[in-house]
Amino acid sequence: MPFKFDVPGWSMSADPVPEAGSRKRKRPTSDTGSETRVHSSEINLEKLVKKLTKKRDEDESRVDAAKSNTGSQSSQSQRKKKKRNQAASAEVDKKSISLPMPLMTSERAAKKAKQSHDARKQASKESLSKQQSASNDNLTVKSNDEPSSGLTSMQKGMKQKLEGARFRLLNQTLYETNSEDAHRMMQEDPTVYSEYHNGFRQQVLSWPTNPVDHYVEMLSSYPAKTVVVDLGCGDAAIARALIPKGLSVLSFDLVSNNPYVVEADICGTLPLPGSEGSEGSISDGEAHIVDVVVFSLSLMSTNWPQSIRDAWRVLKPNGELKIAEVTSRFLDIETFVSLVSSIGFKLKSKDERNTHFTLFEFKKVSRKFKSQKEWDDISSQADTLKPCEYKRRCK
Fold it and tell me: What is the domain extent for residue 129?
């Protein structure tokens, strides 16, 4: 089919003549070939579009995958970082917990020690003040009934330990000291006597029996008006128990802190009537008024035989001498009995059944008047009884 150009001023023959001398071959014009080319172009265009679309989809998939992978790695990295932070924090806490407490400075330690010492000293002063101001009738109560209001349990324990240690020290001092020196010490410092007897009351609580209770029970059966002398009486417990029953009890000790007690050095000359007889004769002496003399754990000073001598002086003929002493003090019981007998007594009975104490019953007998040299020889045997010794406690 020939092409027509309707352009003004232009015209073309229906069958144009090919140029002369042209070597080009004239391609046949065909509608079929043109349609084929158009169709092929359309197919190629569709393939190109599909290829481009597929590549774009693949690129988008890779981008999404890369984003997803990057997000996953970031999340894992954050989790690992968080775990590392937690582990580091735990390690810091562990180290801080394991560290020892900082040491106290020397200045602070000295200040704390001084405060503790002042508190103990103040507690001790308050305790002594309360004990001294207490009425005399309260002296026989046990140590656990003593005033201790306002003290914590720890302070009470410290107070008891201090009193126990003080008692052991004073007790040993009295055993190893002459009675005159002991008397002077207590006159110069009356609190020593109170401290000693406070500790003594605490000590009594650990005994299976108390010799004082034994003598109270025994003497309760004696006739009214019986005169009893308690030497080294302490709180005068025997007098308190027996006077209401009609007995006359005279109590002597180094310090008088209540109306029942007369202050006296019991190893000296008692303020009681009596004599030792005349030189060159055997006698019981004269002017005696005492029926019974009691030594309940009171043969303490280094000159204790002198107290036995004065007991003989004040006792009536056949008067009774009762002695209770710590068993561990005896080096030899027979030697002790022999020494007491040489002063003018005869052994009536001996009781060694108690695990802590030995009890003796003596009777006054007539004796020959002794010279001072003979008395000095008797006094030199005081080591027949050894002092009570207390081990130092670590706690």
Answer: 119-196
Question: Could you report the per-residue pLDDT of 361-377, keeping only the tens digit for each?
Answer: 999 999 999 999 999 99
Flag whether 99 is in a domain. Answer: no
Q: Which pTM value belongs to this model?
A: 0.60
Q: Do 225 and 332 lie in a common domain?
A: yes
The token duo for 128 is 């002594």
Provide the sign of the torsion angle of the four alpha carbons 120, 121, 126, 132, taken in this order: positive
Q: How far apart are CA 50 and CA 280, in angstroms?
A: 160
In tens, the pLDDT along 26-71 reads 555 545 555 555 556 666 666 766 777 776 777 667 766 666 655 5
Nearest to 290 by CA among 317, 253, 327, 325: 317
Whole-angstrom distance, CA of residue 267 vs CA of residue 320: 18
Rounded to the nearest 10 degrees, what angle do helices 106-133 and 153-175 cross at? 70
Q: Which two tokens stand for residue 1?
A: 């089919």
Same domain, residue pair 146 and 253? no
In a domain, 72, yes or no: no
